[in-house]
Amino acid sequence: MKLDLERIDQTVLALLHLGLHDGSRTWKTFDWDAMSRLHEKGFISDPVNKAKSVVFTDEGLRESERLLQSLFGHNAQA
After folding, report:
1. pTM (global) more than 0.70
2. pLDDT digits (tens, 9 = 90+) for 11-52
């Protein structure tokens, strides 16, 4: 099966927002390939280190919140 890596990356970025702590840090508990792609896109710090979390860039934090609402939020009128 061919997977849509862009959609996977968007979903991972949205779900990373759920682990937000200490301002802009989030737990790095997702697939390493997806995490590396998000780093290459400039959304998070380099996930290859000993820390158990990564830091969102300003753009990454905004985009993760937008995607979380867009992909998983309930419509206020529903």
Report:
1. yes
2. 999 999 999 999 999 998 899 999 999 999 999 999 999 999
8 A C-beta contact, residue 56 and residue 43: yes
The pair of three-digit structure tokens given for residue 12, joined into one six-digit string: 């991972």
Cα 23 versus chain centre, distance: 15
Phi/psi class of residue 74: alpha, beta or left (left: φ > 0; alpha: ψ in -120 to 50)? Answer: beta
Q: How far apart are alpha carbons 14 and 65 in whole angstroms?
A: 6
Q: What is the 3-state secondary structure (H, E, C) of the chain?
A: CCCCHHHHHHHHHHHHHHHEECCCEEECCCCHHHHHHHHHCCCECCCCCCCCEEEECHHHHHHHHHHHHHHHCCCCCC
Domains of the chain: 5-71 (1.10.10)
Question: Which tokens in the block code for residue 59?
Answer: 């753009």
